[in-house]
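Researcher: Quick one. two chains, 445 residues in total.
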Amino acid sequence: MIRYLLLPLLLLLLVIVQLTILELFSFGWFGIEISLIVVIYLGFHLDTLHGGVLSLLLGFFLDCLTSAIFGLYMFLYVLIFYLSNIAGGKIYAGRPTLIASFTALCTLLEGMVIVLFYRYVFGADILDAIPRIFVPQAVVVGCLSPLFFVLLKHFEVFLHAEDRRPARRI
Amino acid sequence: MLIPHKYQSPFVAAVLLIISLAVISYSASRLAETGFLRKMVLEVASPAENAINVLLKGLHDSWKRYIFLVGIEDENRRLRYGNAVLNEQLNNYREGYMEGMRLRKLLNLKDGLTNQVVAARVIDRNRVSLFKTILIDKGTADGMRVGFPVLSEQGVVGRIIETAWHASQVLLLVDGNSNVDGMIQRSRAQGILQGAGSAGCNLKYISRVEEVLPGDVVLTAGLAGVFPKGLLLGVISGVSRKEEGLFQKIDVTPAVDFGRLEEVLALIPDARAGK
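Model:
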């Protein structure tokens, strides 16, 4: 129970760290979106309900603190979570290159959805943001994702260390 | 559960997507208002963000201060170097000024002489040798010849004993081999001024009957044709008359401080100057 109370707080902390500390390393060019890696990790490792809710929550926090369109990140993260969830059932998610490629693809997808959203909802053409912002962001986040997958794996093991219940049957 | 297990995942995903789209739609229609949950998140997040930003700003400021200090150190090093260069320049100017002053004195001496003169710089001196000589930077190429007298603004220095093309050796008055015809200015009594090493010089062959007093000035007599008449040789520092002997023993302190000689004038005698 404590785990489910603690996780939202940790997710909020993650978003805060991402918006404050990690932004320093982006040199004002693009954001290092660790929250996206977390969503993909959740997609690979959690069931639809738990992972989906956590992704929605993560998107909600990000929306609260950054987004100009409230709900956009919620939608995006749920979408990416679901895609990851589907991909996780079909591919072996232990290979770093695969993780990196999939994360980069998801980052690009996210960028494209944002660009399309801006184009069709606000009528603003920000297509140049894809090569200028989202492609380098996809490369950087993609490269970082295997490392964060390892860290998240350790965190998951730590979180379940006290869980003595028998494994759930799927 | 009502939904079959096979469709649970797509159902949950669809519900979540619908919720998020609904949120977008809802927030788009009510732009002016901020929802309660959003307010809560902002309330919780803003102090944390503020704390992290303060911490980061502190770190950033410390780093900048460190860089600033490094910059100050660099500047300090640059200024020290600049200071050393300027000190060197100042020293050179000071040396130039003092050299100018000395040369002016030499020039005044030169103006007072009818002979042709050549100014030379002292480039070496024998400090520990028995021979009291100096080396000057003018030689036969500049008209120097053996026997030419050498003067400074203080008085007679000696005479040239060796010449090369661009350097000459000068035998100082105080060398034991140096003999210059001299006379006492006050009494006009004439003798030979012989070098006595570090003790100075002795004025020889002055009769016992001559009245010689310490402080009397000794000048060149101009008899041998080497030194012109009337150049300052030194000042009598001591006189002793022994019972036996015809002459007095007279100690003379040379007018020139040989240890501080830097520039000298070599005098070209009239007869040779014409050649």
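Residues 104 and 138 of chain A are 4 Å apart (CA to CA).
Researcher: Thanks, that's what I needed.
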